[in-house]
Design a protein that fits this description.
The protein has one domain: Metallo-dependent phosphatases (Purple Acid Phosphatase, chain A, domain 2, 4-Layer Sandwich), CATH 3.60.21. It is 27% helix and 25% strand. It contains 6 helices and 13 strands. The strands form 3 sheets. The protein has a 6-stranded mixed sheet, covered by helices on one side. Strands 7-8-9-11-10 form a 5-stranded mixed sheet, with helices on one face. A two-stranded antiparallel sheet has the order 4-5. A hairpin with a 2-residue loop joins strand 4 and strand 5. Helix 2 packs parallel to helix 4. The protein is globular and about 60 Å long.
Length: 266
Amino acid sequence: MAKRLIAIGDLHCGHVVGVTPPEWEQGDRPQHHAHKTQKIRRACWEWLVQTAKRLGRPDVLVVNGDAIEGKSARSGGTELLEADRSAQADMAAQAIGLFHARHIVMTYGTAYHVSGDGEDWEQVLADKVAADKLGAHEWVEIAGTVWDFKHHVSGSGVPHGRKTAVSREELWNLVWSDAGLQPRADWVCRSHVHYHEGGFRWYGRRQVWAMTLPPLQAMGSKYGARTCSGTVDVGLVVWDVGNGGDVTWHAEMAHIPAQQARASRF
């Protein structure tokens, strides 16, 4: 029987442009920036609801880290819509629940967002959604095809360098698997950098893919807006494994008009 795997990551629930179920909205926000982020949040949530419904129930849902925003200490909490990390975990659980997945695999995200005072808030979330597995580095196998998931990967400040780091991860998997310490992956997937980039490499007649997954958090963080130059891709990735083990995949990318920058005209 054919099976479907969906991978999501970087929800950053609690952030002003993180994944936000409607009950956490706080009425009309007249200030320009607050009103804009509210429009972005609402559009992203509606896109996620409709996309999950259209894709149907996956056999496996991978949540690849940074499901919550955390305390946002570096910005003094000024980017938070919801500061309570337990509530942030409730937000993330509701988003994950949209998929009604048969199995859920989770990875730990960045300590800045999901850890604090010794806690691992992803463990709290994993309990809320009854995840099958939570770990720093996880592998999923379906009909002989293996996926390698981990949250963190280095980024690049130039467009042509974006694939370099994830290609390095793919080669490290080759080294670890040759040592007999990891499964040899057909797909190497990372998150963290908030862009969707990747490609494949041939090993004889075997094709191996390496990619960074798009985030579900939209544009609008202070760090990204004031420090980074690259584009942000919002979406998720879907794989379908046929009865014969053949794999097809595609990315579902969100179009959020409210994110578009406009020039001030005088």
